[in-house]
Specification:
By secondary structure, the protein is mostly helical. The protein is built from 9 helices and no strands. It is elongated, with a radius of gyration of 18 Å.
Length: 164
């Protein structure tokens, strides 16, 4: 039965993605948006990392209530721990800037930026290069490290800039 459930979750996620990204499939109505959000929520609750990433990001950045923002941050963290690179970058941002549930922790931010950068996230590598160059995030100025992270960023396609 878990395989059937997993297959159903993957199908629900694909539908939610289609509804989210294609405007021609159904008109952008409040009803369609509610359906899309319900599908993302069900998939995130089932542990689908991509759904956790997308739904968590939407909750964290677009919700008004602190509870929904906290739940969004939790989903993003779960997706990051599952290896989702975009979520790793988002978790680093959350720790760098802080929020109600996750107070500012520069050491955690550096760790998550490094994970994301090593996995190929352009903006994470750029952020670490800048942090080492300027001595931010609790890091000492280190031009060798700044150059290392800058080279890592230059190896990555700049496509991540639009997707982050």
């Amino acid at each position: 039965m878990p395989q059937a459930s997993s297959l159903f979750t993957r199908l629900e996620f694909r539908l939610a993605e289609q509804l989210f990204h294609t405007r021609w499939l159904l008109p952008r109505s409040p009803r369609t948006q509610r359906l899309t959000m319900r599908l993302f929520k069900r998939c995130a609750e089932a542990g689908h990392p991509d759904a956790q990433s997308i739904y968590g990001h939407m909750l964290f950045h677009r919700s008004l209530s602190p509870q929904d923002k906290a739940r969004g941050a939790r989903y993003v963290l779960e997706a990051a721990q599952a290896g989702d690179v975009k979520s790793q970058y988002q978790v680093a941002q959350i720790h760098e800037h802080g929020c109600v549930q996750y107070p500012r922790r520069e050491d955690y931010a550096v760790t998550w930026y490094a994970r994301a950068a090593q996995a190929g996230h352009y903006l994470a590598a750029e952020r670490l290069a800048l942090a080492y160059r300027l001595g931010e995030l609790g890091l000492a100025v280190d031009h060798e490290q700044a150059d290392y992270w800058q080279r890592m960023a230059e190896r990555q396609p700049a496509v991540e800039m639009a997707a982050a």
